[in-house]
């Protein structure tokens, strides 16, 4: 292992691991509802209109997240394709690169906080965590946000542990802070502020913060964000900031926005799955870290993870990816525990409570394996051999790791768990997920429209099925209307196609009857609308008008 950790070799190894985990399926998995498709569609419209200031989803202002991720996605599409293409892969590339950068930075800064062995294992565990693999496959903000968080926190950690940090570290801190605000608003400064407060209160000293050069840095971070913020405020008459706060931030803080609510403790329980397979040692590592909190690196990672985690648990709105910015600190603490094979730490990893946690971890792995097998049976074309490869990978992770932790061979257990999980992830994202046809209603509608109406000069109207993935796949001009509007559209435009959900069937029939046109059923597509959690049946119609 010592040879692997010299020079650029660890960066090359981590980069290769990330590409193996993050690239399979990036083209094959259709655009997801709802956030991913909204982000991608808004980025496409920037390219279509040439307006890179205002963020719009069709004709609606999307005043929620700042512009950073849209610029990155637009740049990726410009480099690889055309804005009008329905390919989702270019929009996902910033997430792949963000996840890759986060892993490399975790090693870079973790080596300073601990040593290269701990930093490398911590970065590997982060790279293979289920939540980061999933986020790297989606055209959203979270993987890029993670890279900004690790850059800010890593630079901050150097200042905390080093009495003479350089100007370069201060520049990284403030530039990454500005970039993070341009990606997702206050999240990066919020985590950094909580970290600083926790350290200052625990240590009763704050003098090390002078090295951050705030008189230089704050204007520098503001310079990253201010030009676009001024431009969008002028373009929207100040509406962007007001709506972002009132319609997005405050509802999440005050209530369970869009039914995404859960009890306090939800994230801790969920981490056994989202951090899997690294979650194998999460419980014992946290106990060990608290006992060893006088160590500089451990102390900093605890200050990074715990205060923000408590706040996330307290906020009513909860989504699995919200705690992702804290996972690099956790994987570094896990790695530190794995290399502390002595005394109390050794007992912590092999005690009765730890073994109970290992059993819980194994149950999660078994549940993932079962889900991989069941998914194509429930939502695909039946049994899929690839699902057995995925389940086999998860099963191997459990079967190989559990006996080894029982026998106190902790590091081999972590390595084998990650190897099995990696096989599972590649199979799931490359083959299992793309084959779940009943979930990909929008893809099936697009395929049908392309087959039935090669001339796409007339937009498709959709009534009752308004998922953003449909807009992304069929184009910006897609009409999201009611049943009566869909009837009027196909009656007025010969050859036009309407997509009708059961909820709007009666209004569609009545509208066509009133127009005097005759409906012609082209195709019926049944499936499961996972955004609404229910089965549905979409019918594709065109209309014939009587002569004269």
Please explain how this structure is put together.
By secondary structure, this protein is of the alpha/beta class. It folds into three domains: 253 residues, no CATH class; 87 residues, no CATH class; 105 residues, Translation Initiation Factor IF3 (2-Layer Sandwich), CATH 3.30.110. Helices cover 64% and strands 7% of the residues. The chain is built from 23 helices and seven strands. A five-stranded mixed sheet has the order 4-3-5-7-6, sandwiched between helices. Strand 1 and strand 2 form a beta hairpin. Helix 1 runs antiparallel to helix 4. The chain is globular and about 85 Å long. The N and C termini lie far apart (82 Å).
Apparent shape: globular
Unreliable spans: none
Q: In percent, how much strand structure appears in the residues? A: 5-15%
Strand tally is 7
Helix content: 55-70%
Number of helical stretches of at least 4 residues: 23
The value of Rg in angstroms is 25 Å
Question: What is the rounded distance between the termini?
Answer: 82 Å
Domain module tally: 3
The structural class is alpha/beta
If you average the pLDDT, what whole number results? Answer: 92
- Give the biggest beta sheet: 5 strands, mixed
**Order of helices and strands, N to C?**
HHEEHHHHHHHHHHHHHHHHHHEHEHEHEE
Spatial order of the strands forming the largest sheet:
4-3-5-7-6
């Amino acid at each position: 292992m010592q040879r692997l950790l010299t020079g650029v070799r660890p960066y090359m190894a981590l980069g290769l691991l990330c590409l193996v985990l993050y690239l399979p399926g990036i083209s094959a998995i259709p655009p997801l509802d709802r956030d991913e498709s909204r982000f991608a569609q808004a980025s496409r419209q920037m390219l279509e209109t040439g307006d890179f200031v205002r963020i719009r989803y069709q004709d609606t202002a999307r005043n929620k997240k700042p512009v950073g991720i849209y610029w990155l996605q637009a740049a990726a599409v410009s480099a690889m394709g055309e804005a009008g293409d329905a390919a989702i892969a270019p929009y996902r590339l910033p997430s792949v690169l963000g996840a890759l950068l986060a892993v490399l930075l975790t090693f870079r800064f973790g080596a300073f906080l601990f040593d290269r062995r701990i930093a490398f294992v911590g970065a590997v565990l982060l790279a293979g965590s289920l939540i980061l693999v999933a986020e790297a496959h989606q055209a959203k903000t979270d993987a890029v946000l993670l890279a900004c968080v690790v850059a800010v926190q890593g630079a901050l950690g150097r200042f905390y542990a080093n009495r003479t940090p350089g100007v370069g570290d201060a520049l990284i801190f403030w530039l990454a802070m500005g970039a993070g605000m341009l990606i997702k608003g206050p999240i990066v400064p919020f985590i950094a502020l909580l970290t600083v407060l926790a350290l200052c209160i625990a240590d009763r000293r704050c003098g090390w913060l002078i090295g951050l050069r705030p008189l230089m840095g704050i204007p520098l971070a503001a310079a990253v964000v201010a030009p676009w913020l001024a431009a969008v405020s002028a373009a929207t008459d100040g509406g962007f900031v007001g709506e972002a706060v009132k319609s997005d931030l405050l509802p999440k803080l005050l209530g369970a926005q869009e039914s995404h609510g859960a009890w306090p403790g939800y994230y801790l329980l969920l981490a056994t799955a989202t951090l899997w397979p690294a979650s194998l040692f999460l419980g014992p590592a946290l106990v060990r870290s608290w006992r060893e909190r006088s160590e500089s690196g451990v102390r900093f990672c605890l200050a990074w993870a715990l205060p923000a985690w408590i706040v996330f648990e307290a906020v009513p709105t909860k989504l699995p990816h919200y705690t992702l910015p804290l996972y690099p600190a956790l994987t570094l603490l896990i790695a530190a525990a794995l290399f502390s094979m002595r005394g109390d730490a050794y007992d912590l990893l092999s005690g009765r409570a730890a073994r109970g946690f290992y059993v819980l971890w194994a149950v999660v792995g078994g549940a993932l394996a079962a889900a991989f097998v069941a998914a194509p049976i429930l939502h695909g074309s039946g049994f899929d051999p690839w699902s057995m490869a995925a389940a086999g990978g998860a099963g191997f992770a459990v079967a190989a790791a559990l006996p080894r932790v029982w026998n106190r061979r902790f590091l081999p257990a972590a390595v084998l768990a990650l190897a099995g999980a990696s096989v599972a992830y590649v199979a799931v994202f490359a083959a299992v997920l793309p084959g779940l046809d009943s979930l990909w209603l929008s893809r099936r509608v697009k395929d049908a429209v392309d087959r039935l109406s090669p001339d796409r000069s007339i937009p498709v109207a959709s009534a009752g099925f308004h998922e953003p993935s449909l807009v992304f796949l069929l184009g910006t001009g897609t009409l999201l209307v009611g049943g009566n509007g869909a009837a009027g559209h196909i009656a007025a435009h010969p050859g036009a196609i309407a997509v009708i959900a059961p909820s709007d069937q009666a209004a569609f029939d009545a509208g066509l009857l009133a127009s005097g046109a005759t409906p012609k059923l082209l195709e019926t597509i049944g499936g499961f609308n996972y955004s609404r959690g229910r089965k549905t049946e979409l019918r594709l119609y065109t209309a014939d008008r009587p002569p004269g």
